[in-house]
What does this fold into?
Amino acid sequence: MKKQTLKKMDVVICMSLKDCWFFRKNLYFIKKNINPNHIYVLTDKRNFNYIPNVGSLITCVDENEVVDNLTFSVCKSIVEKYLTTQAFGWYYQQLLKLGFALSRYAKDEYLVWDSDTVPLSELNFKDEEGHDLVLVKKERHVPYFDTIDGLFHAPKKAPYSFISEHMLFNVSIVKEMLSLIEEKSQFKLPWFEQCIAARKEDVIQVFSEFETYGTFCYNYHPGKLKV
It folds into this structure.
C-alpha cells in the first residue's frame, strides 16, 4: 500500500501524564503510518506543556471541557454511585472517546487511537467500498453485553469482539446512539451516566465504548463495519 492511498482523518487520543512521554516517540509513527489530518489530544490541561508539536497538527483539548457537564469529578461520582471499583480514569477515557462526537471539534468521523499503541506499518481504516474496517478479537466479556442490553435494543450480537486498540467512529452514528441511550433511560439520565447505570452487576468492567458502538452498528447500521 502506498502512502498516498491512505485516507486522511482526524485522530483522537486520550492521555494521562505518563502517556505524554511515550507520545513523543509514538508521534513519528502515527504521522508516518496513519497519515492524520489532525490529532486531538484529550488530557488534563496541566499536561499541555508536555505535548510536542502543538499547533498545525495537534490540538490539546482540556478533558473536562469535551462534553458538557462531564468532568473527571463527575465521572468519579457516577462510578462510586453504581460500582465499588476505583477505575475512574478507565471509565472516564471511554466516555470521552464517545463524547468527542458531541464536541465542536468533531467532523464526519474520527479515529480513536490508544495512546500506548504504536502503528509500525501503514494502516488504512477504509476499504475501497467505503466500509469502516475493524480489527476484531475473540474476547467476550458478558457484563459488557448485559450493559448494552440495558442501553438499547440489540438482539443481534457479533460472533467476535469489537474491542481493539483503535476504532473509527462515525459522528452521526455516535450521536444517534447516545440519543437513543438517553431516550431509553428509565430515569432520564444523561447518556454518560446511563452507560454505567445500565450495568447488571458490580464488577470492575461493566462498559466498553468499542463493544457498545460496534454492537450498535451491527444492529442498526449493518454493513457499516467490515472485519
